[in-house]
């Protein structure tokens, strides 16, 4: 069978060029100009560290004017399990770590019930800076900061995303459907399965929600067993 060549190279050769070098920086710049992002081949840990450094001092939205710390996320980005909340609270803003206040302590207990901890998953938020008064992030804030979350997802290539609360679920799934209708089944963000459950802060306000969250955790545990999650570090995806 004859080899099918990209017409681009025929055009290049018509100018008498038989060899072409493309700098990675040029490819990156060109892709970003076209609305895409090229993930460098530095490994998951290296790429996440580079993205975190890129976020230092971010002033892309108004949340930067009131924050104390950017909350990039923490955990094991190689594990294949990504947990996404809405945004940092007061304790998270003080420490620069996600889910370390009352909600975070409850979340740790919830995940411990299915043998998960922060070494077996990665936790992030839709927005990386605390909205004043813990208000819901605006549409523009979610859109701007959501691009960084998208890049985190591109780097991690998780086997599953767990969306905590209505705001995270609606942003990831681009829907206005309420969380009561979204939970109980798997959805998709690009090619990644998404499981929606209640935010731990909602459980602190309404203990009756503990039962449906436990049902969601059993569903998550079953999925992990079938998908071989969490992954071992360095495991091919």
What does this structure look like?
The protein is of the alpha/beta class and 237 residues long. The chain has one domain (42-227): Uracil-DNA Glycosylase, subunit E. The protein has 10 helices and 6 strands. The protein has helices at 7-14, 24-33, 43-55, 90-95, 102-112, 139-156, 166-173, 179-182, 200-205, 210-227, and strands at residues 74-75, 81-85, 122-125, 160-164, 186-189, 192-197. The chain has a 6-stranded mixed beta sheet, sandwiched between helices. A hairpin with a 2-residue loop joins strand 5 (186-189) and strand 6. Helix 3 (43-55) runs antiparallel to helix 6. The protein is globular, with a radius of gyration of 20 Å. The two termini are 32 Å apart. Residues 17-28 have low confidence and may be disordered.
Query: How many domains comprise the coordinates?
Result: 1
Question: If you average the pLDDT, what whole number results?
Answer: 88
Tell me which CATH architecture applies here.
Answer: 3-Layer(aba) Sandwich
Please give the alpha-carbon distance between the first and last residues.
32 Å
Query: What order do the helices and strands follow?
Result: HHHEEHHEHEHHEEHH
Brief summary:
By secondary structure, the chain is of the alpha/beta class. Helices cover 43% and strands 11% of the residues. The protein has ten helices and six strands; from the N terminus they run αααββααβαβααββαα.
């Amino acid at each position: 069978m004859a080899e099918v060549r990209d017409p681009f190279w025929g055009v290049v050769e018509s100018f008498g060029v038989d060899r072409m070098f493309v700098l990675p920086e040029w490819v990156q710049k060109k892709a970003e100009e076209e609305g895409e992002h090229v993930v460098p081949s530095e490994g998951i840990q290296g790429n996440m560290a580079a993205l975190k450094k890129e976020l230092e001092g971010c002033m892309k939205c108004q949340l930067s004017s009131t924050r104390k710390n950017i909350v990039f996320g923490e955990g094991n980005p190689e594990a294949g399990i990504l947990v996404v909340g809405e945004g940092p609270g007061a304790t998270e803003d003080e420490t620069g770590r996600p889910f370390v206040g009352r909600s975070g302590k409850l979340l740790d207990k919830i995940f411990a019930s299915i043998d998960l901890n922060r070494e077996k998953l990665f936790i992030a938020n839709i927005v990386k800076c605390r909205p004043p008064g813990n208000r819901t992030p605006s549409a523009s804030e979610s859109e701007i900061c959501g691009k960084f979350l998208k890049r985190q997802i591109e780097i991690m290539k998780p086997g599953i995303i767990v969306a905590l609360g209505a705001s995270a679920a609606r942003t990831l799934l681009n829907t206005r459907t309420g969380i009561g209708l979204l939970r109980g089944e798997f959805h998709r963000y690009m090619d990644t399965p998404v499981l929606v459950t209640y935010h731990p802060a909602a459980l602190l306000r309404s203990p009756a929600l503990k039962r449906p969250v436990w049902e969601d955790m059993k569903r998550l545990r079953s999925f992990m067993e079938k998908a071989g999650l969490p992954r071992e570090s360095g495991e091919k995806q």
